[in-house]
Amino acid sequence: MIHVIDFEVFKYDWLCVIVNPETREENVIINDVEKLKKYYEKHKNEIWVTYNGKNYDQYILKGLLLNMNPKEINDWIIVENKAGWQYSSMFKDIQLFHYDVMVDRNYSLKQLEGFIGDNIKETSVPFNLDRKLTQREIDETVKYCRHDVMETLKIFMLKDEDFISHMNLIKAFNLNINCINKTKAQMISLILGANKKSYDDEFDIKFPHNLKIEKYIEVLDWYKNKDNRKYNVIANDVKSAKNQLKINIAGVPHVFGWGGVHGAISKYKGEGLFVMIDVASLYPSLMINYNYHSRSIKDPNRFVDIYNTNLKMKKEKNPLRPAYKLTCNTTYGCMKDKNNALYDPQMANNVCVAGQLLLLDLIEKIEDVSELIQLT
């Protein structure tokens, strides 16, 4: 069962609206800590849903449960722009199975409301009032808060696939339900048993042992050149530009770099037999076949087992397969995330560079019997 909650905090007043979409029950709590505590105790083993609650509402809730001043927590987060968890170490002692609907921090709740054509009117009650709210102001704030709760619920339902993928990971890999608080990338680092480490060899590239590039050696030399081992260069002495190699491959202009390769014939038009060759699970396969796993994983065979299980489940059409597929496909991105336990930029670069060079190797072998149109 889930509970959608939103808080509004003023200097001398606070309130929250909680909606249970399954029972259609609504609770409005105004300046009543005991009532909030009773609701929490009754439902603390269920899932609490917010929009941006990971950064705000969960700390207001935990603070009230700990008899703290919600206004001080509010100002710590909003005015002083500090992380909520830094306010008190006691927050970690409050059990809260919390799911945040805000999967993209670039969009506020009001922006999403506007995107789907809903009312985005803000409350007219100032949040910096230096007095108690009047009854009219409380009524308006409740109306405003209720609206945000219902909009959060609407977004939750529109994006339920994200919640389902969270729950699939928890179910498939027997994770604790408190992992609902984490991002999928964080859960995947747990699934793979990663322990965060520091690395200083980001560009110590290790090329595939069976690579046989004979014609387009300039591309291989570009990656071997230590002067090119940087993501950006200064262009025109002013702007930073991506560090890339532009070169014609099989008569098609290509761009190689540190994020992938792209080549295409501009405005192509033709007739005949067209063949699209797609490398299935390219990055996971490279990680396994060339030992490009994150070095923060204690046992790389864990990833191999998940990869093989994913293929097996695909044939069986197992409903839990998406959790295994997500783990396989997300691990590479985690290796570039400094905040993730899987962070290992050297291995991430190895995967990306090897993928580009092995595709180039393939092009060398087939360009005499085919016409290249696009590579990406």
What is the rounded Rg?
26 Å
Largest sheet report:
5 strands, mixed
Uncertain regions spanning at least 5 consecutive residues: none
Class from helix and strand fractions: alpha+beta
Order of helices and strands: EEEHEHHEHHHHHEEEEEHHHHE
The neighbouring-strand order within the major sheet is: 3-2-1-4-5
Percent of residues in helices? 25-40%
Average residue pLDDT: 91
Shape: elongated
Give me the number of helical elements.
12
Beta-strand proportion: 5-15%
- When the domains are counted, the total is 2
Total number of β-strand segments? 11
Task: Write a structural description.
The chain has 376 residues and is an alpha+beta fold. The chain folds into two domains: 2-158, Nucleotidyltransferase, domain 5 (2-Layer Sandwich); 183-376, no CATH class. Helices cover 40% and strands 14% of the residues. The protein contains twelve helices and eleven strands. The protein has helices at 33-43, 57-65, 70-78, 109-115, 135-158, 160-172, 184-191, 217-224, 282-289, 301-316, 321-334, 345-366, and strands at residues 2-9, 14-20, 25-30, 47-50, 97-100, 232-235, 239-242, 245-249, 252-256, 261-264, 374-375. A five-stranded mixed β-sheet has the order 3-2-1-4-5, sandwiched between helices. It has a four-stranded antiparallel β-sheet with strand order 8-9-10-11, with helices on one face. A two-stranded antiparallel ribbon has the order 6-7. Helix 6 crosses helix 11 (321-334), helix 7 crosses helix 11 (321-334) and helix 10 runs antiparallel to helix 11 (321-334). The mean pLDDT is 91.
